[in-house]
Specification:
four-stranded antiparallel β-sheet, two-stranded parallel ribbon, 3 helices, elongated
Length: 146
């Protein structure tokens, strides 16, 4: 997907272990460069200026403009303590704690709730972009857990 200066975007995933940006943060594209490596410079709404490096696994999505239809999936909740899909419940405690089992249970619950496959793929990309702790944190940010 091509981005142009002025586009509003939302962070899907980043491999930068030091950033405070998290999936769901939004920003505005400032510039796009293809050389020497593809780079998308963004001014994030929280004041960060972290550039996105698509070749390094960073992912953003274009937010709809005023004349675009509303997104089919919910944006990040206004209250950061609430999951993206609070109506979807996934049992984490007392179950198989294997990462693949957690991914499978979460994807099945999202699918059963009618969440689009593209959004489930976004969850997978985000959840698998770090270690086991990152997987758990991502799952808890996306669904209601027990």
């Amino acid at each position: 997907m091509e981005f142009t200066p002025g586009d509003r975007v939302e962070l899907v995933a980043t491999n930068d272990p030091y950033t405070r940006l998290r999936p769901g943060h939004r920003g505005t594209v400032i510039s796009v460069a293809d050389t020497p490596k593809p780079t998308i410079d963004i001014t994030w709404d929280n004041g960060s200026t972290l550039a996105i490096l698509p070749d390094a696994g960073d992912r953003i999505r274009l937010l709809p403009g005023d004349d675009d239809p509303p997104p089919s999936t919910p944006a990040m909740p206004a209250d950061p303590t609430q999951p993206r899909y609070p109506e979807v419940q996934v049992q984490l405690s007392g179950e198989d704690g294997n990462a693949f089992a957690i991914l499978g249970r979460t994807a099945a619950a999202l699918r059963q709730a009618g969440v689009a496959q593209e959004e489930i793929d976004t969850f997978f990309a985000e959840a698998t972009s770090g270690d086991y702790d990152h997987l758990l944190q991502t799952t808890m940010a996306w669904v209601d857990w027990q």
